[in-house]
Amino acid sequence: MQNKGGRQLASSPPTTGKITRYKAGDTLISNIRPYFKKIWYAPFEGTCSGDVIVFRANDPSNAPYLHACLRQDSFFDYVMQGAKGTKMPRGDKKQMMEFKVASSCSAEDLILLDSVIKQRSDNDSEITKLQKLRDTLLPKLMSGEIDVSKIDLTQLTNNHLADC
């Protein structure tokens, strides 16, 4: 999804064209219209369209660092400088590989980056669950199938949180 908004599942698996495999810890970037800044850190393995570029750190422990480097706006600006095409520009893969980053990251920073990525992934999962819940409940509320008018909101508290 654009603006670094994660990924969207394909509505149906592709029947033609190239399919690319990715592993947990890979960073996936859409190569069509790089200015949309479509990037995702894979928490598991899977497949993606051939129009998606899969970046894999040589050392898996550096995967969060690689993702952080590629997630920068400066990376997408750099890619657009070498993009080919006007209506549907595509990034130049060779140019992407020449994007300059520091060769290493401290162990403390790697731990922090990994934590941030995991939190973002957890948040994305929670958002997906909440969207499904909304999409299930809202039509039932709107149609009157579910009636919440008799619920006493004064009895709904977060007292259960005090025990944490």
Short description:
With 164 residues, the protein is α+β, with helices and mostly antiparallel strands.
Which regions have little confidence, pLDDT < 50, spanning 5+ residues? none
Calculate Rg over CA atoms: 21 Å
Distance between the termini: 35 Å
**How much of the polypeptide forms β-strand, as a percent range?**
5-15%
The largest pleated sheet is described as:
3 strands, antiparallel
Quickly count the helices: 4
Structural class: alpha+beta
What is the mean pLDDT? 87
Listing every helix as H and every strand as E from the N terminus to the C terminus, the arrangement reads: EEEEEHHHH
Description:
It contains four helices and five strands; from the N terminus they run βββββαααα. The chain has helices at residues 63-71, 73-81, 93-96, 107-143; strands at residues 19-22, 27-30, 39-41, 46-49, 52-55. It has a three-stranded antiparallel β-sheet with strand order 3-2-5, covered by helices on one side. A two-stranded antiparallel sheet has the order 1-4. A hairpin with an 8-residue loop joins β2 and β3 (39-41). The chain is globular, with a radius of gyration of 21 Å.
Give the SSE layout.
Layout: E1 19-22, E2 27-30, E3 39-41, E4 46-49, E5 52-55, H1 63-71, H2 73-81, H3 93-96, H4 107-143
Antiparallel strand pairs: 1-4, 2-3, 2-5
Descriptors for this entry?
164 residues, alpha+beta, three-stranded antiparallel β-sheet, 4 helices, 5 strands
